[in-house]
């Protein structure tokens, strides 16, 4: 298998290189999935790198806002589109006595009234009203606004960085990806469905399960195996792999010989009506330039057996681009052995009940497949903590997992070195 080119990366602390031993051997210390010391380093990483939290499409009108949580940092974030059209982020904590300011998940109007004593803030984070203000002679309203969080967007995706002192821009953090996916038509797929679940497993295990298709034949034998695994490519080797600084991508093939089973009537009906995420529907697009397939950097090998391109951004964000739409995953560490997983699926807007049915079928199929992953992860985490094995072993077809582990290792070592230097 041809090895992709390895490049250095920068998480805002200077140039780092993916751990060479992991890249060479695919061997990773198993303790990284449960040891508290490693988890503490990762907590710090989540406090200083760019994190994807939302999409600009969630904030269509001035005054629209959403709340997202970065629990591993005890942070709740208000993300709001201002009356000036700009998207800003603030810590969701009141300047009076530290109450969580907004308890709902989303809303409109761009004003935030604290549930405790009703101090009021606006979309710019300014404190605009204090009830019984005469009793607060030591409060300077201009100095008592919401605490800002760095917030930038890229191709309709909203990222935050919790390190207010940090100077690295989102474009620099994304590195080669910034140009690699310029003008990708995310917006052509505006119909969304969101799912999420708490998983009793380390967040990196959950990411790995979405980063390789080696497990498809075994773990997904009852769901999507036949759609991906083919006679020529039984273990679903990627068509193409790229290491992009701290990030990475591969092209996932589909099974060109997949045949609908006469026994699976619902599946057959659904697939006839397009909008599939797993299997490409090559005849469905009237305007290829507005689809992912029309973008010159997607499906880079121009394979007829292309299923989707998958981008895995450090530390916790994955998105897949396919003919029928795109979907994303965010993995949020909670504890060393617990994470929260969320996924958002994006389709073209269904034009008919048939389309609608196909979308629902696709969602159900994806849900079932992901449940197979998530249930397996819990079993994996449980026995990993026994200490019976010291390493995990990645193979060549698990290159994305290996690269992620090598970047994670370098980032954690960087934190450890900084700690020692500070002592
Ligand atoms: S804590 Fe918010 S108004 Fe009192
Ligand atoms: Fe899976």
UniProtKB/TrEMBL annotation:
Classification via InterPro entries: ARHD_Rieske_2Fe_2S (IPR015881), Rieske_2Fe-2S (IPR017941), Rieske_2Fe-2S_sf (IPR036922), Ring_hydroxy_dOase_asu_C_dom (IPR015879), Rng_hydr_dOase-A (IPR001663)
Domain (Rieske) ranges: 50-160
Molecular-function annotations in GO: 2 iron, 2 sulfur cluster binding; iron ion binding; oxidoreductase activity
Keywords: 2Fe-2S, Iron, Iron-sulfur, Metal-binding, NAD, Oxidoreductase
Cofactor(s), names only, from the UniProt record: Fe cation
A Pfam family per the record: Ring_hydroxyl_A
Highest taxon of source: Bacteria
Protein name: Rieske domain-containing protein
Organism: Sphingobium baderi
């Amino acid at each position: 298998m041809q090895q992709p080119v390895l490049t250095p990366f920068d998480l805002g602390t200077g140039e780092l290189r993916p751990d060479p031993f992991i890249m060479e051997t695919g061997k990773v210390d198993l303790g990284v999935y449960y040891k508290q010391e490693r988890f503490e380093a990762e907590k710090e990483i989540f406090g200083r790198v760019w994190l994807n939290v939302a999409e600009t499409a969630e904030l269509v009108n001035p005054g629209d806002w959403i709340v997202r949580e970065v629990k591993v940092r005890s942070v709740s974030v208000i993300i709001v589109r201002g009356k000036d059209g700009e998207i800003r982020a603030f810590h969701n904590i009141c300047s009076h006595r530290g109450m969580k300011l907004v308890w709902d998940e989303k809303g409109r109007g761009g004003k935030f009234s604290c549930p405790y004593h009703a101090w009021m803030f606006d979309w710019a984070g300014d404190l605009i009203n204090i009830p019984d203000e005469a009793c607060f002679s030591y409060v300077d309203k201009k100095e008592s606004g919401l605490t800002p969080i760095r917030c930038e967007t890229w191709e309709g995706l909203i990222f935050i960085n919790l390190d207010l002192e940090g100077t690295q821009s989102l474009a620099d953090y994304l590195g080669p990806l910034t140009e690699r996916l310029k003008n990708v038509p995310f917006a052509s797929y505006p119909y969304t469905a969101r799912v999420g679940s708490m998983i009793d497993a380390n967040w990196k295990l959950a990411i790995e399960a979405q980063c390789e298709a080696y497990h498809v034949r075994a773990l997904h034998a009852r769901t999507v195996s036949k759609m991906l695994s083919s006679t020529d490519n039984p273990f679903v080797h990627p068509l193409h792999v790229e290491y992009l600084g701290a990030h990475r991508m591969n092209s996932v093939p589909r099974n060109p010989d997949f045949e609908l089973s006469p026994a699976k009537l619902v599946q057959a009906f659904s697939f006839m009506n397009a909008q599939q995420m797993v299997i490409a529907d090559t005849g469905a697009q009237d305007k290829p330039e507005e689809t992912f397939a029309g973008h010159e950097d997607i499906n880079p090998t121009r394979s007829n057996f292309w299923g989707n391109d998958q981008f895995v951004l450090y530390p916790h964000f994955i998105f897949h681009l396919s003919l029928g739409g795109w979907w994303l995953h965010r993995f949020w560490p909670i504890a060393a052995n617990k994470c929260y997983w969320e996924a958002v699926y994006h389709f073209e807007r269904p034009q008919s009940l048939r389309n609608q049915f196909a979308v629902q079928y696709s969602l159900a199929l994806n849900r079932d497949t992901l449940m197979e992953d998530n249930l397996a992860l819990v079993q994996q985490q449980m026995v990993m903590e026994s200490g019976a094995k010291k390493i995990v072993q990645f193979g060549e077809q698990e290159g994305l997992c290996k690269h992620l582990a090598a970047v994670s290792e370098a980032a954690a070592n960087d934190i450890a070195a900084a700690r020692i230097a500070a002592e």
